[in-house]
Amino acid sequence: MDVLKRNNVRVSGAGSQAMIFVHGFGCNQRMWRLVAPAFEARYRVVLLDLVGAGESDLTAYDSARYGRLAAHAEDILEIMRALNLSDAIFVGHSVSAMIGILAAIQEPDLFARLVLVAPSPRYLNDVSYTGGFEAPDIEELLETMDNNYLGWSAAVTPMIMGHADRPELTEELNNSFCNTDPAIARHFARVTFLSDNRADLPLVRTPTLILQCAHDVLAPIAVGGFLHQQILDSQLVVLDTSGHCPHLSAPQITIKAIEAFLNHESVVSSI
Amino acid sequence: MSEADDTLLPELDLRLTEENPEDLYEHAPCGYCSCLPDGTLIKLNQTLLTWLGYARQELVARLCLQQLFTIGGRLHYEMHCAPLLILQGQVREISYSLRCKDGTILPVLMNAVLRRDTDGNPLLIRVTLFDITDRRKYEQDLLRAKEEAEEHRELLQRQNEQLTRINADLDSFVYTASHDLKQPIHNMAGLLTEFKAIATFHDPEDDKMIGMFDQALQQILKTIEGLTEVVQRPRELEQAALEVVDLLPFTEEVIRSLQPREVKDVFTLDFATVPTLRIARTALQSILYNLLSNALKYAEPGRQPRIRVSTRLENEVPVLSVQDNGRGFDIERHGGQLFQLFRRFHPEVEGVGIGLYLVKRLVAQAGGQIEVESEVGQGTTFHLYLPQ
Fold first, then answer.
1. Which end of chain B is more exposed for a tag (fewer CB within 10 A), N or C?
2. Where are the transmembrane segments (chain A) (predicted)?
3. Given its phi and psi angles, is residue B367 left (phi above 0), alpha (psi -120 to 50 degrees) or beta?
4. Chain A interface, mutation test: which of B40, B63, B71, most A Cβ atoms within 10 Å?
5. Domain B240-385, what architecture?
6. Where are the domains of chain A?
7. A138 to chain B nearest CA, in Å?
8. Looking at the complex, does the CB of residue A249 fall below 8 Å from at least one CB of chain B?
9. Mean pLDDT in each 10-residue stretch from start to end of chain B (388 residues)?
């Protein structure tokens, strides 16, 4: 199996050190479009779609296997081995922040830095933990997804792919950027929102930057604090922006925060 | 046409100029609002305010568009719509629910576009909301129906798998049982022969009983061999390759292999329309052998048997027919049981009731169907539909 094809891996940029950007739930690698190019001058930029999203190989989505985030982490490690990467910088948004953590715990030597964008180790509230959500909230999200999938059946996806060379046709297809197979999206949503990776956080040995949005319904401010406290070698930066996607709503300050973290190598590592 | 309109318009009707854009915005039959890129509400029309039950000053600059949605919609907006607005500048037909001030829920369909400033930076989002209360009910019915259909499909699939498994178990049971029975029965036959050779019988009735015993043994052996064949043949066929069989020489060969018996002038073969069939050889061999030997076996006593084997096309599908002028049977009474295992309608003729069961299985395995016509005293015709 060609893992690079499976995950629609795109490599660009100059430089020896690799920077891997992984999108979160609800979209694909295009989410990095306002941020990733800023690093192409200094890094080898690797973009990919998680299996089940974007232009990944949807047939590879086995819901039993991808019932755990660890399966996506294994995919990331496979891609890194296929590209012969080590000492890499991993940038993961939302659920992919946890996927990056799992990968870095498993193969610490492959990772130099972790950048977690709007991360949350657990979305559901628990005893003395505020994730922000109760189980019925997640059920309601799944219901909203169902209501929105009525119109775009799975049959739409091949059409979008078929018109990849004719953007004018693609544009007519609603919301085509983030379309995917509804059954997969539903399953991935369940896996994402019911996951609990709190116990993994103290196992992280890689220097980590936590980028927390000031007003993010998906990752309340307390969650950023919790992550910072649990991950040994971590910095917490609160970005003055709303929403869950600072790399889209505030790309410049996101780039600056990541650059500052990458440029102060010695200071961070010596903590 | 437009030129004509231009000249006619001013004189037509004064009401045509009455529409007021301000009033249209406020009281349009849909909700309008404008927001900052982060969703902060900056302008709403009266229709939307009326739906929500809020006063303007409660919302403007105080709440975000996504805070008007129920939690599921809010999450969906943050993860899906907000990125899409920046990536593609618009979203269309997104289904959400508004939470009104009094707690009631209003299902809406949302379209939104992103306006950028001259530098290309996001400036504001314009949103249109349509009340879809009735449509949402209908959609939810559809969703429920879809879920039910899906559940039924899964149930059927499970039952299907179970049945397939049971069928395979039954087949291997039949195979094992017939295999295990064969040896002791062969032993019994051997012992009987030995017994006949050494024993002396005084009563002539004894000889008759011995003969009946022998017959019964032969009958059991045939049944067991038939059972073995019923299981083994379809199994072999799973691996057998399809080939083009030339029907005339093939059928002549089968006729030659029938029990030694006077078959002159009995068979008429007509394969002019469809001279060949694409089928596994061994399957066709079993099918023809069983049908032809049955046709001979159930000939009407005292009448010269005439058996016609022919092919034709029906709706592009080749049909192989075997017609006889034998005893026939009451199709009304027995038609449903004809192809069942061990089912027999002519007890006076020797047989074990396996042949037609095997034929039916083989035809089904070849993807075909079998039909039968029969009339008591006139004869029987089997039609085998064998799609190529």
1. N
2. none
3. left
4. B71
5. 2-Layer Sandwich (3.30)
6. 3-123+196-269
7. 7
8. yes
9. 52 70 94 96 97 96 95 90 90 92 96 94 96 91 88 94 88 82 84 84 82 85 82 75 89 81 79 91 88 88 90 93 90 78 70 80 88 90 91
